[in-house]
Amino acid sequence: MRIFADWRNLPPDARGATVALGNFDGVHRGHAHLLRSAHAARPDAKLAVLTFEPHPRAFFRPDDPPFRLTLSHERATALAEHRVSMVYEVAFDEAFSRIEAAAFVRDILHEGVGAVHLACGPDFAFGHRRGGDVTLLEQWAEQFGMGLTIVPPFADAQGPVSSTRIRRLLQDGYPERATALLGRAWSIRGPVAHGDKRGRTIGFPTANVALGDHLEPARGVYAVSVRLGDRTCAGVANVGRRPTVNAGPESRLEVHIFDFDEDIYGQEISVSLQVFLRAERKFDGLEALKAQIKQDAQAAKQLMDAGK
């Protein structure tokens, strides 16, 4: 996997690919369907993705709460699992937002990355004020000698699989349903930070990971799997503001890894939400909280041991 932050002055071996277009937040089953279709259209060409960083929504609506399913490095990892060999990660800034639709196709897709074939969904829009649609893209692609595959949405019984739908499921406390649409459990990835170490005093030390730009899922307790390098461990995690200890307004992820006693401060871990156990609530003191955490840990262990 190679990631390019600019479409200009690319080396010759980074040009001439089939290029799938979109935000690819979550790299879910719908995205996988798009990538399979792109590869099938030109199996002789390398498969690449052209996407944007930050997400256009974050640029145009900076005051919105964090909403990302996958950050840049997570997205690249997920794309690599679908035979994508290159990602053109275009900086979505003020200058880029003003590029006209025709210039996007000519300057970036044709002259910049030298795409031999394009693939996108039927609702793909591009250029200043979303001035380009798939009808125009088809015309301009033909003009510049690029093929184009418009891929119908991938759907299940409830409708098209989309990042918006997955976000809603996670916010409503249904990680298992989100897993079904993603094709893998949704995870929060980041470095382990120092916390207040209160968990150690009640027998449940935790690794603390800031949510950052990740979507905040339903607040509460989850059975989780934790990826540390090449190892995967089971655990129980809390997402929220810890009202029992008046921890403040900022939500965070705290994970207790079962049968684990290592110093991992500063290391990057990936915490996958498997099952939502209960909603966040305030307890009458630390003893009541400790008793509940024991119950949560037992329930999480049983679920993880059963492979759920």
On the 0 to 100 scale, the average pLDDT is 93
Distance linking N and C termini? 32 Å
| Strand tally | 14
Give the overall silhouette.
Answer: elongated
Number of helices: 10
- Spatial order of strands in the largest sheet: 1-4-3-2-5-6
CATH T-level topology of the largest domain: Rossmann fold
The biggest beta sheet is recorded as: 6 strands, parallel
Q: What are the main properties of this structure?
A:
308 residues, alpha/beta, Rossmann fold, Elongation Factor Tu (Ef-tu), domain 3, 2 domains, six-stranded parallel sheet, six-stranded antiparallel sheet, 14 strands, 25% strand, elongated
What's the short story on this structure?
31% of the residues lie in helices and 25% in strands. With 308 residues, the chain is an alpha/beta fold. Strands 1-4-3-2-5-6 form a six-stranded parallel beta sheet, with helices on both faces.
Structure in words:
This protein is of the alpha/beta class. The protein folds into two domains: 2-156, Rossmann fold (3-Layer(aba) Sandwich); 185-305, Elongation Factor Tu (Ef-tu), domain 3, CATH 2.40.30.30. 31% of the residues lie in helices and 25% in strands. The protein is built from ten helices and 14 strands. It has helices spanning 29-41, 56-60, 72-80, 94-97, 101-112, 134-143, 163-171, 175-182, 198-201, 286-305; strands at residues 2-4, 18-21, 47-53, 86-91, 117-120, 147-150, 155-156, 159-160, 187-191, 207-210, 220-228, 231-240, 252-257, 268-279. The strands form three sheets. A six-stranded parallel sheet has the order 1-4-3-2-5-6, with helices on both faces. A six-stranded antiparallel sheet has the order 9-14-11-12-13-10. Strands 7-8 form a two-stranded antiparallel ribbon. Helix 7 (163-171) runs antiparallel to helix 8. It is elongated, with a radius of gyration of 22 Å. The relative contact order is 0.13. The model has no long low-confidence stretch (mean pLDDT 93).
